[in-house]
Structure formats: structure tokens, C-alpha cells
Design goal:
Serine Threonine Protein Phosphatase 5, Tetratricopeptide repeat; globular; Ankyrin_rpt
């Protein structure tokens, strides 16, 4: 059975060498997690604040706008965990700032998540990119 990229990122804290090996072993950059949330390696790396892993996954074609079932997109996960550098990286790479998380427990946009977290720096970055 090939490696699962989400699991590799989660277990190795986004070690790029391990991610390269997983890709060689048959994983894909958009592998979804093994739980009901459908996290990917990108959403996991974003929540960890691992800019190197996020950049590598994006370079390899990871879906920057993938929405997990509960926690939203990589952008929303980075915002929720206060990962400003990852937020900047995702913005520079063209993430959709107006994706809407339709989860019943957290219906909101990335901007609403930043405001809810009290992170004015990230809220300003999002507004500058057209977030509503």
C-alpha cells in the first residue's frame, strides 16, 4: 500500500525528505487523510506552520483551495493556528481568500476566522488581497 501524504506530513511534522520518499513510494500530493475530515498534506503543513513543506507541496501541484470537511482550507487552518508566514505564502501563491467553510460548527470565511482569532495583521493581509 502506498504512503499517504497527509499521514506522512502529520507523523514527520512536514519533513520534506520524508515527503519526497512518500511521493516516490506512490503517494500523491493531494492524498486525503484517513479520517472523516479529509485533511491533506497541505492543510496539515499549513496548520503546523511549516512553510518549507507548504511550498514544496504547492510546487508539486497540491490543491491550494482544498476544503476539508470540518476545518476548512489550508489558509483557514494557518489562520486558526496563527501561522502568519504560511498565510503570506499562500496569499503569494494565489489562494482564494473568499472560500467559505460550510461546516455546521464554523461557517465562515478566512477573514472571519482571522477576526475571530483577534489577528489583525492577518485580517489586514486578507483585506489587501480582496477578502470579504
Amino acid at each position: 500500500m502506498p504512503a499517504n501524504m497527509h499521514k506522512v506530513v502529520q507523523e514527520t511534522k512536514g519533513d520534506v525528505a520524508a515527503m519526497i520518499q512518500a511521493l516516490e513510494d506512490g503517494a500523491t500530493v493531494n492524498d486525503e487523510g484517513y479520517d472523516s475530515n479529509d485533511d491533506t498534506g497541505l492543510t496539515e503543513a499549513a496548520s503546523q506552520g511549516n512553510s518549507a513543506a507548504v511550498a514544496w507541496l504547492l510546487d508539486k501541484g497540491a490543491n491550494i483551495n482544498h476544503m476539508c470537511n470540518y476545518s476548512g482550507s489550508a489558509l483557514m487552518m494557518a489562520i486558526s493556528s496563527g501561522q502568519t508566514e504560511v498565510v503570506k505564502l499562500l496569499l503569494d501563491r494565489g489562494v482564494d481568500v473568499n472560500l467559505y467553510n460550510k461546516c455546521c460548527t464554523c461557517e465562515r470565511t478566512a477573514l472571519a476566522a482571522a477576526i475571530s482569532a483577534g489577528n489583525e495583521e492577518i485580517a489586514t493581509l486578507l483585506r489587501d488581497k480582496g477578502a470579504k
